[in-house]
Amino acid sequence: MKKLMILGASIYQVPLIKTAKRMGIYTIVASVKGNYPGFDIADKVCYINTIDKEAILEVCREEQIDGICTSGTDVAVATIGYVNEAMGLAGVSEDAAFKACDKSAMKEAFKAGGVDASEFIKVHSLDEAYDAADKIGYPVVVKCVDSSGSRGINVVETKDGIEEAYNESVKYSHKDYVLVEEMLHGNEIGVDGMVQDGEIILIAPHEKYTYKHGGATIPAGHSFPYYCNDAVSKEIDKQITLAVKSLGLDNCAFNSDVFIDGENVHIIEMGGRAGATGIPELISIYYGFDFYEKMIENAFGQKVDLSGSGVLTPCMSKLLMSPVDGVLSDIDMKRIEELRAQGNDIVLDYGVGDSIEKMYNGTTRIGHLIAKTDDETEVDKIMSEIYKALYVDGKPMEELWSK
C-alpha cells in the first residue's frame, strides 16, 4: 500500500485525504493540534507544525512515504520541497517551493524571467515602507511575503495608512521583511493548472469573485469557464508559462492570481499547490476528471492523464461567510437538504453551538456552495436560501447580511 503524507488537516485538505483513501492509499496527516476535520479521517495523525521541516522529514523517513502534498495552503509548500529533495521524491523542488512561498523571492524570479508583474520594493522597517511607497507612488499594496488567504495584505491609498498596513503584514509573517508593491488594475481572475516533467499539462483560467473588507480583497468564489478573446487567452498562456518556468515549478499543481487589463495580462503571484475556495472541485466538474486524484498521482511520480470526459460543465463556487462574530445558534437542515437535493454541493464547517468569526480574510469561511452553473444570479439566490437557514445568536444570517 502506498503512503501519502498530507500537510494540513483543515477543510481544504479533507477532500485530498478522502480521495487518497478512496484510491487505497495510506494517509498520514500532519498539523498542529486543533479542531481540524482531517484528523478524524486520516489513517495516522502527527501533531507537527507543517513548517517544521526537520520534524516532518523525520516522520516521512520513518513511514517511508511514497509522496507528499497539500491543497489550499502556501505555508506547507516549502516543507514539501524540502522533503522531496531529501528523500528523492517526485514533486516540487526545494528551490522552487521557496520561491513560491516567499513573495519577495517570487517577485525577484518573475523579474528575472520576464514575467509581466508589478513593481516592488522589499522593506525591513516602517521607515523603509514609507520611502518605498513614495518611490512607487500611491496607491500601493503592503504585503506579507509568507501568508495565504489574503492575511497581511492591504491596499494603501495614502501615507496615513502605511503604518497600520505594515504592522499587520509583520504580524502575519515569519520573516523580517515585507513587500511594498505597485497597485495593478484590471479584472482579477484566477489561473490554476498542473506541471509534470517540465511540461505544463493544464492551464485553467477562471472567474474570481471577491469580498471587500477594509483595504483587503478577500477571495469569495470562482467559476468556470473564463470567457475571453483569443488574444487574451494566448497572453494568459504566455504569462503563466513564463511564471511557472521562472519559479522552476515542476511535478505539482499551481495556483495564480492574475489581472486582465485589456489584452494585457499581469501576474500577481503564483503558488506551488492547488487553489482553495473550491477550485479543485470546480476543475473536476468542468473538465470531467478528479483533480485531487491527479494531484496525488503527480506527487507519486505517476504519469498524469488529463483527457477527462470530453464534456465541459460550467460551474461556480462561493464561500459562506458571516458579517458578524457570534454563535451559530441554529441550522434549518430541512432547507439545506432541499437545496442539496437540487444538485448543490453545500458544505458547512460548523455546527449548532459553535462560535464563528466575522469575515476578515480568506480563512474565516463558515462553509461553501458549489453549483453546476456559471450564472452568478442563480448562485446568489441559492446563497440567500442558505443564509436563511443559518442563525447567529438567534437571527437569520440573511437578515444580518442585509444590514
Explain what this protein looks like in three dimensions:
The chain is of the alpha+beta class and 403 residues long. The protein has 13 helices and 20 strands. It has helices at 14-22, 53-63, 77-87, 94-101, 103-112, 126-136, 162-171, 230-247, 279-287, 291-299, 333-341, 376-389, 397-402, and strands spanning 3-7, 26-31, 44-47, 67-69, 120-123, 140-144, 153-156, 178-182, 187-196, 199-213, 216-224, 252-261, 264-271, 315-320, 326-331, 345-348, 355-356, 367-371, 390-392, 395-396. An eight-stranded antiparallel beta sheet has the order 13-12-9-10-11-14-18-16, with helices on both faces. A hairpin with a 2-residue loop joins strand 12 and strand 13 (264-271). Helix 11 (333-341) runs antiparallel to helix 12 (376-389). The chain is globular, with a radius of gyration of 21 Å.
Low-confidence stretches: none
In CATH terms, the superfamily of the largest domain is: ATP-grasp fold, B domain
Structural class: alpha+beta
> Which CATH-level-2 architecture of the largest domain?
2-Layer Sandwich
Task: Round the Cα radius of gyration to an integer and report it.
Answer: 21 Å
Which fold name corresponds to the CATH topology of the largest domain?
A: D-amino Acid Aminotransferase, Chain A, domain 1
The whole-number mean of residue pLDDT values reads 94
How can the largest sheet be summarized?
8 strands, antiparallel
* Strand neighbour order, sheet with most strands: 13-12-9-10-11-14-18-16
Distance between the termini: 54 Å
Shape: globular
Number of helices: 13
What's the structural domain tally?
A: 4
* β-strand amount: 25-35%
**What would CATH call the class of the largest domain?**
Alpha Beta
